[in-house]
Design a protein that fits this description.
Number of domains: 3
Bound molecules: flavin-adenine dinucleotide
CATH class of the largest domain: Mainly Alpha
Number of helices: 12
Largest sheet: 4 strands, mixed
Order of helices and strands: HHHHHHHEEEEEEEEHEEHHHH
CATH topology of the largest domain: Butyryl-CoA Dehydrogenase, subunit A, domain 3
Shape: globular
Length: 383
């Protein structure tokens, strides 16, 4: 059975899905175990994905991208994460932060910064989280102060995808101290070879090992006035809107991982024998598989509904937060159950299921921990 079937995928996103699946089968699956084990940045796979037109594909066609919408990117995300979450994250984050520059930036910023990413000559990243807080977007302390025709950044960022590898980042920094704590933040484009920018990799992770995150220190890091993205003080609201799009796609990360967990469970129980039969013949095992299927299909249906709501700007925050929560937690549950069905063999480090088991811990946290999503769902419930 094809868990990631075309059923809920709109017609216009099916070609992107087919391309992503073909790429994942040819270029990601064969190296997934090796890249997970080495924990090295998968430059070769990233370059192959660029050649296949699957990196930064959401950037506008006039800049060299493919103008993919949220549904096309979700379709790609499901397929990449089914093949390997760490590599999938690297491929999908190679243009992270660009969407904000596209939406709020100037034409000059589009030409100077988006075009090279859209044409796959550069990669980017988005720096929001800090060592002391990730969830409280209005509690970040990295500051940007105006000095003549420059902004001077000081502070630290943590967990930033491609902090070491990227050519430039979109950085979220505090520019005011008003009572309205949501109006105190702005976005800046920062080139990673700027003076005062230092980044190093965070310690080795147990999951998504083929993706790399960094710890950044800004020490009087100067950027030109022209690198402010959007309006001064508008950063929090720009980010909140941007996350709706991202959360639908992170739901797809969960769906890809859940599909991988279910595939592994199905294959294993039909082969493994005990008590004179294959273990799939036990009704208790069948019920576990039935529950996994039901939860998966419920999550996927919700996620694709949410993608449409976000695309149509129709109460997007509520739907995106629900999709992210449901799909990523379905992945955690599916991985846990699949591990149990694998018995002792579940813990062999090189098994696909044990990689998935470690990877599923991450999407319930990034793009806003699921507790934050629940706050958003409650607050944005139509009443
Ligand atoms: C692999 C990976 C990649 C990442 N990539 C990026 C990136 O590219 N750029 C970037 O900026 N960040 C990135 N992040 C950071 C990520 O967004 C944060 O980890 C996340 O927002 C949570 O922040 P935190 O880890 O500081 O947890 P904290 O904010 O310290 O929260 C810890 C826990 O406390 C609980 N909690 C916190 N606040 C509340 C609340 N209000 N109500 C209820 N419970 C609460 C939750 O259980 C939460 O998980 C990445 C993280 C990971 C793991």
């Amino acid at each position: 059975m094809d868990l990631l079937d075309e059923g809920p995928v709109p017609e216009h996103a099916r070609e992107a899905k087919a391309e992503a699946r073909a790429f994942a089968e040819a270029e990601i699956e064969p190296v997934a175990a090796e890249k997970f084990s080495s924990g090295e940045y998968p430059w070769d796979v990233l370059e192959a994905a660029m050649d296949a037109g699957l990196v930064a594909a959401d950037l506008p066609e006039e800049l060299g991208g493919r103008g993919f919408d949220v549904e096309q990117i979700l379709a790609i995300g499901e397929e990449f994460f089914r093949a390997d979450a760490g590599i999938g994250l690297t491929l999908m984050l190679a243009s992270f932060g660009c969407e904000l520059v596209e939406q709020y930036g100037t034409e000059e910023q589009h030409e100077q910064y988006l075009r090279p990413v859209a044409q796959n000559d550069q990669i980017s990243g988005l720096a929001v989280s800090e060592p002391d807080t990730g969830s409280d977007l209005a509690g970040m302390t990295t500051s940007a102060e105006k000095d003549g025709d420059e902004w001077v950044l000081n502070g630290e960022k943590y967990w930033v995808g491609n902090a070491v590898e990227a050519d430039w980042l979109t950085v979220y920094a505090k520019t005011g101290d008003r009572d309205d704590r949501y109006g105190n933040y702005s976005l800046f484009i920062v080139e990673t070879d700027s003076e005062g920018y230092e980044a190093e990799h965070i310690p080795e992770k147990m999951g998504m090992r083929a993706s790399k995150q960094g710890h950044i220190v800004f020490d009087d890091c100067r950027v030109p006035e022209a690198n402010l993205v959007g309006t001064e003080g508008g950063g929090f609201y720009a980010l909140a809107d941007f996350f709706n799009h991202g959360r639908v796609v992170v739901g797809g990360h969960g769906l890809g991982l859940a599909a991988a967990a279910i595939e592994e469970a199905e294959a294993f129980v039909h082969e493994r024998e005990g008590f004179g039969r294959t273990i799939n013949e036990f009704q208790a095992v069948q019920h576990i598989l039935a529950d996994m299927q039901t939860e998966f299909q419920a999550a996927r249906t919700l996620n694709w509904r949410a993608a449409r709501q976000v695309k149509e700007h129709d109460n997007p925050g509520y739907w995106a937060a629900m999709a992210k929560t449901k799909s990523t937690e379905t992945a955690v549950d599916a991985a846990e159950r699949s591990m149990q069905l694998h018995g002792g063999r579940s813990i062999f480090a090189d098994r696909r299921i044990s990689r998935v088991y470690r990877d599923v811990r991450i999407p319930v946290i990034y793009e806003g921990a699921n507790e934050i999503q629940r706050n958003l769902i409650y607050r944005q419930t139509p009443r």
